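Q: Convert this sequence to structure tokens.
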Amino acid sequence: MRFCVPDLRPESLRAALLAAHRTHLLLCAFIALQMLP
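A:
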């Protein structure tokens, strides 16, 4: 049985960080719009 090894290559890690950062920015923008009167 083969175990699933997480992809820890620098390029994939950087892509994951970029995706998380973009999602975080979208979430912050959405919350800021909700807090506007």
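The mean pLDDT is 84.
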